[in-house]
Specification:
This protein has 171 residues and is mainly β. The chain has no helices and 16 strands.
Length: 171
């Protein structure tokens, strides 16, 4: 557990459960393994080379996460009120995703089986023989929200930005 009122937090090459809380300042980390949870009022969150699962929110600040090995055993939520979110997941990521950028766009670089869609535009998709949505093209861009299954599915990953864009890619 790390908490600061003002000032930046920096973690490198740690393992175990992590709870990172700051009122004013950035949260930065690299080479973190285990469950990572963050909370921030103002400041950027940048976590690289994560092995495990990550969840958290900021009120004002961009979020950049790079996950080498996602072991999502429970629902994960990544959210900012004001800021862009960039999330890089492993190429073999599987999970149910809900990506929602209220006032901007969403870009997803994974094939997706649609569960339910809201406010879609410019989304390329195919339909199965029974007319049900089946898959999207990687790199498709949507306005606002997309929900679906990546790979074999799994625990839900929710990513939400009230006034910024969301980009989910693979590494």
């Amino acid at each position: 557990f790390v908490e600061t009122t003002t000032g930046n937090q920096e973690l490198k090459f740690t393992s175990g459960p992590h709870l990172l809380v700051t009122r004013s300042g950035s949260i930065e980390g690299e080479g973190i393994s285990g469950h990572v949870e963050f909370r921030g009022e103002s400041g950027r969150v940048q976590l690289k080379k994560i092995e495990g699962q990550v969840s958290g929110r900021t009120h004002a600040g961009a979020i950049e996460l790079s996950v080498l090995n996602w072991s999502g055993k429970e629902r994960a939520w990544i959210e900012t009120e004001s800021g862009n979110i960039r999330l890089d997941l492993p190429k073999k990521f599987s999970g149910d995703v809900d990506l929602w950028a209220e006032k901007s766009g969403v870009k997803l670089d994974f094939p997706l089986k649609l569960r339910k869609t809201h406010w879609l535009s410019r989304l390329t998709r195919t339909e199965s023989a029974d007319g049900q949505p089946e898959a999207t093209t990687p790199g498709a861009s949507v306005n606002s929200r997309i929900r679906g299954r990546v790979g074999e599915g799994g625990e839900e990953l929710r990513v939400h930005s009230k006034s910024g864009s969301i980009e989910v890619g693979s590494k």
